[in-house]
Amino acid sequence: MVMALAVAAGAYAQHEHHAMPDKDSGKMQMAPMFENKEVGMAYASYIVLKDALAASSVTKAREAASELEKSMVNIENGAASIIQVANITASTSLDEQRTAFGALSDQMAVLVKGNKLSMGTIYLDYCPMAKYSWLSNSKEIKNPYYGEKMLSCGSVTETIE
Fold first, then answer.
1. pLDDT at site 72
2. Which residues pair with 134 in a beta bridge?
3. What confidence category does residue 29 fall into, taking pLDDT thresholds of 50, 70 and 90?
């Protein structure tokens, strides 16, 4: 239920262009929106997945991956991403989910950079310990690869506008 609401909120923001409060800082920020609505919905689902991994929740990560998989079906060149998402959905191991998320994040970065943002900013973050990148709506680091063990490990390496 929570997953459906989060994805719906992302889809709503995609269409209505509203500012949303950053759940960590409480400050208002514009949710990134894409000219391609399908990419926007997939990106919103990706963020829910990233947050679930940062919270070290296998169950929430599986639920988020399932929603992301549905949103990737109509995206051109989304097949490789669907494979990684399916690996996350099928896994009961947080380590396996995080490894698949690393490959997925590389593919999502290509997808995001290849589609025009109509509003907002996306940050490409990198964790030197995990040697993986991820996308984020905030400059604040919330590491999905180590969760609470090293939640702030990483840095912003690129800003996508």
1. 94
2. 125
3. low
- pLDDT greater at residue 25 or residue 82: 82
Other CB atoms within 10 Å distance of the CB of residue 73: 11
Dmax (CA) for the chain in angstroms is 38
Residues making up the chain, counted from first to last: 161
How far apart are alpha carbons 127 and 143 in whole angstroms? 7
- Asked if 48 and 61 touch (Cβ cutoff 8 Å), the reply is no
Q: Which residues contact 53 (CB under 8 A, 6 or more apart)?
A: 61, 94, 97, 98, 101, 144, 145, 147
Q: How far is CA 51 from the centre of its chain?
A: 7
Tokens of 106: 């590389």
88-133 confidence digits (pLDDT tens): 999 999 999 999 999 999 999 999 999 999 999 999 999 999 999 9
Give the residue carrying structure tokens 């996306």: 122
d(CA 93, CA 90): 9
